[in-house]
Amino acid sequence: MEIAFPIVLWGVRILFLLLLYLFLFRSFAELHRAMRTDASDAQRPTTGLAYLVVERGHPAGPRTGDRLPLRTTSAIGRGPGNDIVLNDEAASAHHATISLVDGEWWVEDKGSTNGTLLGGARIGERERLGQGDVLAIGRVSLRFESA
Amino acid sequence: MRAHPAARFGELRLLFLVAALAVTGFVAVVATVNAEFRTAQVLVPLLFLALAAALHVVLVAVGFRGDQLLLPLAVALTAIGLILVERLAPRLLIQQLTWSIVAAGAFVAVLLIPRDLSVLARYKYTWALLGMLLLVAPLLPLVGTEINGARIWVRLGPALFEPWEAVKLLLVVFFAAYLEEYREVLSATPRRLGPFPVPPVPYLLPILLMWAIAMLVLVGEKDLGATLLFFGIFLAMLFLATGELFYTAIGLALLAVGSLLAYRAFPHVQARVDVWLAPFSPDLRFDQGYQMVQGLFSLGNGGLLGVGLGRGMAERIPVVWSDFVFDAFAEEAGFLGAAALLALYLLFFYRGMHIALRAPTAFLQLLAGGLSFILALQTLVIVAGNAKLIPLTGITLPFVAYGGSSLVTNFMLTAVLLRVSDITARVRGPG
What we know:
Structural class of chain B: mainly alpha
Shape of chain B: globular
Oligomer: heterodimer
Radius of gyration of chain A: 27 Å
Number of helices of chain A: 1
Order of helices and strands of chain A: HEEEEEEEEEEE
Order of helices and strands of chain B: HHHHHHEEEHHEEHHHHHHHHH
Distance between the termini of chain B: 14 Å
Largest sheet of chain B: 3 strands, antiparallel
Number of strands of chain B: 5
Largest sheet of chain A: 6 strands, antiparallel
Low-confidence stretches of chain B: none
Structural class of chain A: alpha+beta
Radius of gyration of chain B: 22 Å
Mean pLDDT of chain A: 83
Distance between the termini of chain A: 74 Å
Low-confidence stretches of chain A: none
Number of strands of chain A: 11
Number of helices of chain B: 17
């Protein structure tokens, strides 16, 4: 018994190292798997691409006919920090956002003064966007087009 | 977030291995040291594993997609940290467990609360201001506290924390947003003066400003590590955003000049460098060089397989649990253990960079890249310091070293990386 204890303890220490390497090995395998699925994802066309086409612009921009690409989350408003800047006095500084959630596009009003209109009706907090929907912010109107 | 749960079997399998690893490590330490038995020795690993399981359940329940590797890596490193705390400073064990619970809370908060990460980009100047305030906080009277010659601590009531840890996250967020905003300047070809590109004003100004602040930190807070990290993050992200090696070269030259001046002017910097150059010199080895000398003995004592968990002499190193954990682990788990530990960090960094490359927007790419980079730089600086490759600094080994502020921020960092990978998985379509 007196001899057995140190041997068991030595075994536990070696086991610790073995488990450490097993974990490392499995982590490498997981990384490999993740990168392989990522690579096959990249072959598929992304569903993320969408545009806002400017139907009625504003003299100070954006111009009628412009195609504004959308990102996963795009901020729209009068402030210079927005992804899509509308130089219209009737737009609020942080007016609205358009974002992609689970493959669906949503427009959300960020508490603007004059509201955001979707197909002519003022939206509540957030609303789903469909192909060809027309958004009106201030005097600018934008048509949503997803690729 | 998706309403219905999604299985994360890869993550679950890895977490089972972490559990086996943690239990084995605890058994080895407790059986070897066998002073008096404490309930905490059983309770702490069990509670910690329950915590890890809870984090996994949260990720499954909210339907999180994306990466399944970072959480097991973070948990494994934290478990190794707890084993080393039990080994080197048992009286701090409960405290470290408490911190890991707080860290798990912060992790879940970052996962759930900001519904949209672009909020981070929109209020970038707020974050920058907050970061600056935190950075100079240790210099203020009343709250600032000096420990072991470095003035990097803030005391609020009974809690003592290193604001630097939070500052690094805020800085990465700010840099990512700032560099993204000026991305038009980035795509333009820079004017050239002979063979050298002339940085446009939006780059030159922050380079100089950051340098000035980094020097202020070096002089005022007497911390080499924070200075190096602070400036290193900035240069790395500038390089990520512009791809111009020359800007990085300017930055490094400025840093070299500043460091040289600091070395000439300040005795505490000289002391660090002297210890690094010759820790065994007769007037240093029992004095300022004592910690370094004992650390090197530990590192050398390990050999290939190590002396075995619990059997080392690392407790001779002063403040080993926060400054020299790498040497302690290398002594007890040997070269093989230390190499595996470094490989875990490498995996974390590699995965983080991969997430950055795939992220859908420039802001998210810079954010993930910057966050992965700080973790790698921190590991590099402290491990190299422990091995006497560069002067020792006050940076902690991420996840492993004892310390609450560091553990909490590193878990928040992991949560942000997970969110970026989740966003990527959603944008790339149903997978």
